[in-house]
Write a structure and sequence with these properties.
The protein is α/β, with parallel strands linked by helices and 201 residues long. It is built from 7 helices and 7 strands, in the order H-E-H-E-H-E-H-E-H-E-E-H-E-H. It is 30% helix and 16% strand. The longest helix is centred in the last third of the chain and has 12 residues.
Length: 201
């Protein structure tokens, strides 16, 4: 469950049964969290929840500041970072690939030999993720040698179908479990529960 912005949301997600939580360190995002808030969330979590930090072409100083303060288990890179730039932190990382017709997922994956997994998300020009839009899952090849995390437009209504069709290692959701009420941001506890239940089914 990506894009949690408060301790309350994080604990609700944990209660719903998630395995991992994503913190967004990309200032233009409406789900951006400060280092201070991220640290508070991290230290409020119970054991055995994987904490993921999401970065988009962040400079080295910004990433180092986060790593000094927030006990992240995994890094997630959503920009144009090279494999070398992702690996320099000597931490396990996943690379997000934005998929659209004509994308060679195999070629993109080959450029990141150091990644421990690939997150496949929808492409929208100028938006590095969190679009709430699904892509054509048939574009995903069967022969990828890394775990696939499926993202992009997933919600409680379609995630079971996505798992059945793609058989990913994991699924990633953000806007699909948000309230959807205008001027009201944040995750909806009931949608989070419904999503996890759909995944389990």
């Amino acid at each position: 469950m990506c894009g949690v912005t408060s301790i309350e949301e994080a604990l609700q997600a944990v209660e719903a049964g998630v395995d991992a939580l994503g913190l967004v360190f990309y200032p233009p995002s409406k789900r951006f969290v400060s280092v201070e808030k991220a640290s508070e969330i991290a230290f409020a979590l119970p054991p055995f929840i994987t904490l993921v930090g999401l970065f988009v072409d962040a400079d080295e100083a910004a990433i180092q500041t986060v790593l000094d303060r927030v006990p992240l288990d995994l890094l997630q890179f959503h920009g144009n970072e090279t494999d070398q730039e992702c690996e320099r932190w000597r931490r396990k990382y996943i690379k997000a690939l934005r998929v659209r017709p004509g994308t060679s997922i195999e070629e993109c994956a080959a450029a990141y030999p150091g990644a421990c997994g690939l997150l496949l998300d929808s492409y929208r020009k100028g938006v590095p993720g969190g679009t709430g839009e699904a892509f054509d899952w048939q574009l995903i090849p069967d022969n990828l040698d890394k775990p696939i995390i499926l993202a992009g437009g997933l919600n409680p209504e379609n995630v079971s179908q996505a798992i059945e069709q793609v058989a990913p290692y994991a699924v990633d959701v953000s806007s699909g479990v948000e309230s959807g009420v205008e001027n009201e941001r944040g995750k909806d506890p009931e949608k989070m529960k419904a999503f996890v239940e759909a995944v389990k089914q």
